[in-house]
Amino acid sequence: MNNEYENNHNNVNDTDKPESTAEHKPYTYTYGPNRSASTLRTAYENQLMKLTDEGGEQGNSGWGSKKPGKKKSQAKAMVAAFLVGAVVISGFMYASDRTNLFTGNEQASTAATTTASNSAQQAAGVTTASVSVDATIADVYKAASPAVVKIENYTQPVQSNGRGYGGRGGFQGFGQVPQTQEDSGQSGSTDSSQLELAGTGTGFFFESSGYILTNQHVVADASQVKVQVEGYDEPFIAEVVGENAEQDLAVLKISGTEAFPTLAIGDSNQTAIGDWVIAIGNPYGFDHTMTVGVLSAKERPITISDEDGDHVYEHLLQTDASINPGNSGGPLLNASGQVIGINTAVNSEAQGIGFAIPTSTIQETLKQLVGHNV
Predict the structure, then answer these.
(1) Is position 53 annotated as part of the catalytic site?
(2) CA atoms within 13 A on the CB side of 25
(3) Range among 19-33, 69-83, 160-174 with highest mean pLDDT value
């Protein structure tokens, strides 16, 4: 077949054949995929004109002048017109589909929008954030949690905790959990049954040989320090290797038969406001609690007032990751699982305002406290 509409109508000589023997073969059309819409329309209109003319001629002929014959001719014309219209409309549909007449621009627009959206997400650094962040946080906690420890401060009953609460500016005493008299002696003592548990905090291993970093106020005035390590039934008796009250840092040491899991100390200078951060600690005695937030600000100064006077701390990291009493000394981690801060203080008059000592300020102090490079 060629790409033209073919008219296979066999004309009938009305004068030679009677009405009963006149036969009209149907019109047959073949659509060529290269036909344009205008050509289809012209062919359709021409065919309708032919059908109309033939209907009129048959109605006026001798054998077609009878009323039944006229109705029969008109019915044939209507059926033929319907078939022609159906074929033409099908041709229009086929042509539009082949040429993407209606969907081509939409597909291109969708593709362009998708590309632009992906480019914007990549530029903002948020590609598949909802999936990757959740997976990263779970992985960070799983890897980091074994290196986080619970620290218990035991003192003589006559001694106080040494840290006030609700100091100037509403900053709570750096998050150490004070214990009531009912809690006294619940973990016992190797030296004396008179020692009582004065408070608890958090720390983490930064060397596999057993070196632990925490806040100085967590172990302040302690007669004995015990460390509970994940996977061990009994706590370790810890040695306080060194303290620095100005930076609120302390290093402890415990000994074990196997290497301890550690956390890598990262560079807080490489962090940016809005980065995801993860805090792991023991708030109010709830061991190994993870909270998540973002880095809210950097270079924050705060002043803490207690019975020893005012203490000014500068260059702190601010975060909305929940930090409560008992989180003190615990790690503030980035999305790669590196320590970028040591959780230290919380504003008791607000929600979501916590502070951590940045790792960029502790490297030299750590060397001094440990006695070697770390």
Answers:
(1) no
(2) 8
(3) 69-83
- Please name the fold of domain 130-374: Thrombin, subunit H (2.40.10)
* Higher-pLDDT residue of 304, 227: 227
Catalytic residue among 217, 268, 296, 322: 217
pLDDT of residue 312: 87
By CB atoms closer than 10 A (0-12, 13-18, 19+), residue 50 is middle
Q: Pick the catalytic residue from 248, 268, 296, 322.
A: 248
> What are the phi and psi torsion angles at 34 (to 5°)?
-95, 0
Active site residue 248: yes
Contact (CB, 8 A) for 304 and 284: no
- Based on the residue annotation, tell me whether 9 is a catalytic residue of this protein: no
| Among 73, 296, 322, 328, the one annotated catalytic | 328
Copy the structure tokens of residue 37. 């819409």
Q: For residues 291 and 31, what is the distance between their CA atoms, to the nearest angstrom?
A: 69
The residue ranges of every structural domain in the chain are 19-98, 130-374
CA proximity to 18, closest of 64, 71, 59 = 64
**pLDDT of 87:** 72
- Give the pLDDT confidence score for residue 308 in this predicted structure: 72
Model confidence pLDDT, tens digit, residues 106-127? 444 444 444 434 444 444 444 3
